[in-house]
Design goal:
The structure is a single chain. By secondary structure, the protein is an alpha+beta fold. It folds into three domains: about 1-65, no CATH class; about 70-200, Trna Endonuclease, Chain: A, domain 1 (3-Layer(aba) Sandwich); about 210-345, no CATH class. The protein has helices spanning about 20-30, 70-85, 130-140, 190-200, 270-285, 320-330; strands at about 5, 10-15, 35, 45, 55, 90-100, 100-110, 115-120, 140-145, 170-175, 180-185, 190, 205-225, 230-245, 250, 290-295, 300-310, 315, 335-350. The radius of gyration is 30 Å and the shape is rod-shaped. Bound molecules: zinc ion (ZN) (3 copies).
Amino acid sequence: MPLVAELEGVRVVSIDLDDDAWDALRARSRGGALRFRDCASAAYLRTSRRGLRHFVHAPGAGHCSAHGNESAAHLQAKSVIIAAARGVGWRAEPEVPGPGYQADVLVTSPAGVRLNFEVQLAREEDTDYRTRSLRRTADGCRVLWLTRYPLPPRRDWESDPLAVPDPRAPQARLVENDGQQFSVLVDRMCSLEEAVTDLLSGKVALRPQIAGERMLSVVLARRACWSCRARMTFWRVIGEHVVGACGRWADADAERLDDHAHAENKPEQARDIRAAVAARIKELRWPAMASLSSRASKEAGKTYMAFSCWQCGRVQGDHYLSQVWHEAAYNPDQPEVLISRGASVVEAAHWCRPPEGAAPCRIGPSPGH
Ligand SMILES: [Zn+2]
Ligand SMILES: [Zn+2]
Ligand SMILES: [Zn+2]
């Protein structure tokens, strides 16, 4: 059920016609002057139950391969996209042919950025989204697949295209609710209209990286010295991640946290970490920080960066501390300290929705922007 036909070779878009033009076209169509470009069949006028004007083949014309997949729902989805795009000042056209493809809806920004929305309502097991996307990007046109049945990852190591959008072939799940209402899952579930509006106005954008602040997470624990019973605070770096402007975060290339026991150097030595821990335990009124220095250990048979009692100086060995951290991992109230290590970027494709007024994660290829 297309929205486009040709009248003596001139493109006609059904939803752009006013009542008079529609009636005039009906008169012309009776003489067979209206045709579909792709299959050359005669086109006739029809209005859907939802009041959407479109074109149909002659009754009983049989299956047409060029228009086989066009359901009423597909028609409805296209018209919603067109209306939303025009609402934010983009030009929007249905069924626009390009080299090796036809865009369901082609939208063009005032600056000339072109984006093709493709609506896939049928289950198509072998759709090669990357190749089909490539035809469009080679033509200077970005694409977003709105798919009702997104293809699951084919191999174990491939990521789920919904959880981790593929910037080479971005897909978003399209859900059809009752009565041809559509929802779309980008960073969150919203109406099709809202998704198109947000994408085209840059409120949400596909970003290949998370860009923001690199943060170290440090966990604290307090214990008594095995020898003099003085209480002290221990600290351990447990993770490192980058938090994007949008609030999404990803693990960063952490300093290797395994092989931590009896290491000659430890991330906990760092001056900024010690300062942040000191500030935090002051707030918490926790006991003084343990000492951390290079110590010869009989137990370990080597010299390593060891915690020791601030009062009596005895080493609080790493075997003992590994037990402490193991216990701490099961304590949900364990105090944590976050320490900024400055701006950083991690490869992690995501739908980026920064807070109002903030810039999204670093500029990259994205539908919309
Ligand atoms: Zn046809
Ligand atoms: Zn002690
Ligand atoms: Zn982001």
